[in-house]
Write a structure and sequence with these properties.
5-stranded antiparallel β-sheet, about 90 residues, mainly beta, SH3 type barrels, 1 helix
């Protein structure tokens, strides 16, 4: 693992393969996104819908006590490092 500049944040290496090719459908039952739920999904592919609109595949690598989620976002060709406030997430799959 690689240590990030922010205290206490560990970032794993970029995923070595693209996410699943199928885009999941929006599910109203997954709207209660919390840090506990996200912690159980670290280092796996998740699909994220954000409250401001938009959705993407993500490979979350770590969370911080201040509700920040770190990981990689898929742009249909490559993985890019992202930092996302968990409170900005509308839904996950």
């Amino acid at each position: 693992m690689i240590k990030n500049d922010e205290p206490g944040v560990l970032i794993s290496r970029t995923p070595q393969s693209p996410p699943p090719q199928v885009t999941p459908g929006y599910n109203k039952l997954n709207k209660n996104v919390s840090m506990a739920i996200i912690k159980n999904l670290l280092l796996s592919y998740i699909y994220v819908w954000v409250k401001k609109g938009g959705a993407f595949w993500m490979y979350p690598t770590s969370v911080t006590p201040d509700n920040m989620l770190f990981g990689y976002q898929w742009d249909d060709r490559f993985w890019h490092f992202v930092k996302l406030d968990i409170d900005e997430i509308d839904n996950i799959y």
